[in-house]
Design brief:
The complex is a heterodimer of chains A (232) and B (37). Chain A is mostly helical. Chain A has one domain: Four Helix Bundle (Hemerythrin (Met), subunit A). In chain A, 76% of the residues lie in helices and 0% in strands. The longest helix of chain A is centred in the N-terminal third of the chain and has 34 residues. Helix content of chain B is 73%, strand content 0%. Classes of the chains: A mainly alpha (232), B mainly alpha (37). At the A-B interface, helix 1, helix 2, helix 3 and helix 6 of A face helix 1 of B.
Chain lengths: 232, 37
């Protein structure tokens, strides 16, 4: 038991270091985006929101995919650590998708002339966000660890089904949302300096997310959350 | 004083909100961890 606590404390400390490195990296990305990346010709200065919006969206979708996969593994192996890890990832995913959903309208207003459009990409992303907010609400409402882990794993798998629709929505539906500029079959359609800032943003957001997940997972271990989730 | 580019307000708001969310979540996690460390 004390070994578990020591391991959880180590995870929290490592997560904290990663998160601090990620936060410093975010400041670096801001400097890179504002002063060392050219202004896009058609959208002007508003296009700078791209370097906040896209890395946050990328991180949220990756982490929600991990939640779904880990939840499937939980239903198979019934290991409570998997349930705790899924919870840690889901909470970080909600944080990053909140950034995606706030930066999107702030970009849409100057470029599209509207804060929001009930377009397939935007609507599906909003549903995904609500689904994971519901996932976290469900977890806090259920007190039996095994029941909580089982029910929330099912919700997470439903979220996993939604993730490819979010990514492919720009191909499947008529939408005003731009097509992917990097994750597409052909070469990235961005000038090198913009691509560099975007990739640095993606790496930094991923590091920050990893830090948050480690901290949250370690905290769950310290709090003994879901300790009996495997005892079904 | 140099003039801000057009739509700078939207950009600054997006960057500030993102930084605010990240820092708030980090501080929340740190406070929660400290209760058990």
């Amino acid at each position: 038991m004390s070994t578990d606590i020591t391991a959880s404390r180590t995870l929290v400390r490592r997560g904290r270091m990663l998160a601090l490195a990620g936060l410093a990296g975010i400041a670096g990305v801001y400097v890179l985006a504002f002063w060392f990346t050219p202004v896009e010709r058609t959208q002007g200065f508003a296009q700078k929101i791209f370097y906040v919006h896209v890395p946050a969206a990328w991180t949220a979708l990756v982490v929600f995919t991990i939640v779904g996969v880990v939840s499937m593994l939980y239903l198979w192996l019934r290991d409570p650590r998997l349930d705790r890890f899924a919870e840690a990832c889901a909470e970080s995913g909600v944080v990053f998708s909140a950034i995606m959903l706030t930066s999107g309208p702030l970009w849409g207003k100057p470029v599209w002339g509207a804060w929001w459009q009930w377009d397939a990409r935007l609507t599906l992303t909003l549903f995904l966000f609500f689904l994971y907010v519901g996932y976290l609400a469900l977890r806090s409402a259920l007190h039996d660890p095994a029941e909580r882990a089982r029910f929330s794993a099912v919700v997470a798998i439903l979220g996993l089904v939604l993730v490819p629709f979010v990514h492919l929505s720009v191909y499947l539906f008529r939408t005003i949302h731009p097509m992917p500029v990097v994750l597409k079959p052909s070469a990235p359609s961005l000038p090198d300096e913009m691509l560099r800032t975007l990739l640095v943003g993606i790496v930094v957001n991923t590091v920050l997310c990893a830090g948050f997940v480690l901290m949250r997972y370690g905290i769950a271990g310290l709090e003994g959350s879901g300790e009996e989730a495997g005892d079904v | 004083m140099s003039e801000l580019p057009a739509n700078a307000g939207y950009v600054i708001a997006a960057y500030a909100i993102a930084a605010g969310i990240f820092v708030t979540y980090y501080l929340r996690l740190r406070a929660r961890a400290r209760r058990h460390m």
